[in-house]
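Let us practice reading a record.
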Amino acid sequence: METNPAPEEFALMTQRARAMWALGDFARAGAEQVIVAELLCRAIDIHPGERVLDVAAGSGNAALAAARRGARVTATDFVPQLLHVAARRAAVEGLVVEIEEADAQALPFPDGTFDVVLSTFGVMFAPDQARAASELVRVCRPAGRIGLTAWTPRSVMASSQATAGRFAPFPPIRGARSPIEWGTEAHVRELLGSGVTDLNTQVLTTEMCAASPAARVEFNRTYVGPTKAIFDRLDPTGQQALANELADCLQKYNRATDGTLIAPAEYLQIMATKAA
């Protein structure tokens, strides 16, 4: 029977993840998905004055979307460089967003602090999924709302991550769950469990664009930390092999016929109400 990783293994995974996401400049990639956060905040019906937490906020897409609706927003992430970008973006727009460095698996807030808890393509990457899900529920007030987005197993992101994973420097830790499982309703229901009611999901699509599939690979290896980490450890032959495989993967999803890349990227939008 497969067992869950030990606490020290989760700690190692978290340490590695923090180091990888700090590489490159993920804010460049995150900026492409502003629309996802806007749609989530509209769907979950954030009202002015509500207390909103953006977990694993990255450069702040969901936090800023909530602040634009007049909410009182706190953005957290375990990569301070990304939070600095979120703070600068908020300042440019004249928005008030509190910034706090925090691990999604150990949020530094009392129980029931927030009316709404959000995460767009963020909490899904926490190594200890059960603990992260428990934290989402814990810091949300009774009858408050939880809104999440995660890439589905059929998405271009899932396929790209699986391709890159074959070149990863570390073997997977036995029993660790794939982040992509957050993109399935059954797994999210399992994670949130009896802590929530009225859980609803919807499969939506955003887009990944670039001058070409190869140009997108170059963009990702420059700015997306986990991808950059894999490329940086390979010799030139390995780098070219990975680049070719990733470009082929992107092309399979490409709907453009003019040499550019417009790849539909499927994701799951999740909305739930915390049990009263």
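A brief commentary: The chain has a mean pLDDT of 95.
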